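FORM 7B: Structural annotation worksheet

SECTION A. Query
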Amino acid sequence: MKWIIAIRDLAAKAGRGFARLSGRVLSPLVGHVSWNAPPWARWTGARIGAGGRWAGANPTHAGLVVLLLAALAAGGVYGAKWWQARPKPIEVKLTVQNPPRTPIENEDETDRGPRPLLVKFAQSVAPLSMAGKEVPAGIRITPPIEGKWKWNDDKELEFQPKEDWPVGAEHEIEFDQSALAPHIKLASYTM
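SECTION B. Predicted structure
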C-alpha cells in the first residue's frame, strides 16, 4: 500500500513541477496566462484520482486487476501473432494461350484438325489423381463449344474442341474448385 501512495505522490509532484517549469518558460514568451482544464480533462482526472484512492484502500484487488489487464494484453499480443502466422491459401495466377490458326492449306489430312486452347498455371494445381487425365467436370466454357478438357501435366490444362474454333468468337472459361487440388486458390476463377 505504501508503494501505491509513493507512486501517486511522485506523479503529483512531477505534474506540479512540469506545470511550474512550463509556466516559467512560456511566461516571457506569451505573458501570464491562466488555464482551466476542459470538462473532459477534469472528469478524467477525477476518475483517475478515484481509482488511485480505491487502489490504496484495496491493494489486493488492485493487484489482481493489474494482473488481469496484463494477462489480457499478453493474450491480445499472442492472439494477433497467431492470427498473422496462420497458413494462407496458395493463390495461383494463370494465363490462357489462344489456339493458333488451323492450317487448312496443308495437304496432310491428319494435321488439319482444330488447335487446342491451353491454360497454363504458375504452380502445380492439378489434383494428383487427375494429372495426365481427362477432366470430367468442373470447367465450363461460354458460349458452349463441344470438346474435352485434359490435364497435360500438373500445370497445364488443354481444351481440345471437337470442331474448329468459330472465327472471331470470344469465350469465357469458368473453373469450379472441384477441378483443382483442394488447397489451391486461383487469383481469378473466370477469364
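SECTION C. Observations
The first strand starts at residue 90 and ends at 92. Residues 149 and 159 are 4 Å apart (CA to CA).

SECTION D. Sign-off
Analyst initials: ____
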